[in-house]
Amino acid sequence: MDSIVQFENVGLRYGTGPEALSDLSFTLFSGQFYFLTGPSGAGKSSLLKLLYLAQRPSRGMIRLFDSDLVTLSRDRLPGFRRRIGVVFQDFRLVPHLSAFDNIALPLRIAGMRDADLATPVREILDWVGLSARGDALPATLSGGEQQRVAIARAVITRPDILVADEPTGNVDPDMAVKLLRLFEALNRMGTTIIVATHDIHLMTRIKRGQMMRLEGGRLFDPTGALRYPPKPSDLRGWDGESR
Length: 243
Ligand code: ADP
Known about the structure:
The chain is an alpha/beta fold. It is 31% helix and 25% strand. A six-stranded mixed β-sheet has the order 6-7-8-3-9-10, with helices on both faces. Strands 2-1-4-5 form a four-stranded antiparallel β-sheet, covered by helices on one side. Helix 3 packs parallel to helix 5.
């Protein structure tokens, strides 16, 4: 398996406060589906921000797509960001743009002409089940529809990694399962998925999902499953029961 993300002794501190994340060491593998869980304030959003390059770590080493992020020059950051799609709990759609134009935005930013982007945008609208709502403004869409537009926008550039921060927090349980199926379909096409959620019920819906648990800014990884290769000391003393 190819590693796509590697953290080594990563810490993150906001300003002069205590560390929000401490001593994170793990490897994520290409094509896998990860759930990031933990109580409120555990550091889930902070860890995702490191992954989608909205924050730099205060210490430690992060490798992404086989490059060292800490020493990466600033002019290479946009190219890296294009390879990572992001979905938020509150959708973050541009309110005055239609569903079609929200989804087309990343392609326009990348310089694609209108004549070339119409087909891929229509295809992805169809894939998320919204082919009839392309002209609708976000405020006229339900929460589940808005989140499907947000997912379509996040994946229109075919990113290698999709990061989602509590993506089902603002939709009803049936829609949450449907959204998860979209993530699963993307994962089957090879996208590495990382979803932060504290919905245990949701996590049991994805059979091949692996769980990462944060507590107080530290990763709880008793079996060492997120390390490669696992250290023998990670496997010793683990009683196999979840805590
Ligand atoms: P979670 O997503 O698990 O709820 P967060 O990553 O949002 O956790 O927060 C982890 C810790 O970092 C919390 O103590 C929170 O108050 C702090 N924190 C998060 N964002 C900021 C910020 N921008 N400035 C200062 N402290 C922050």
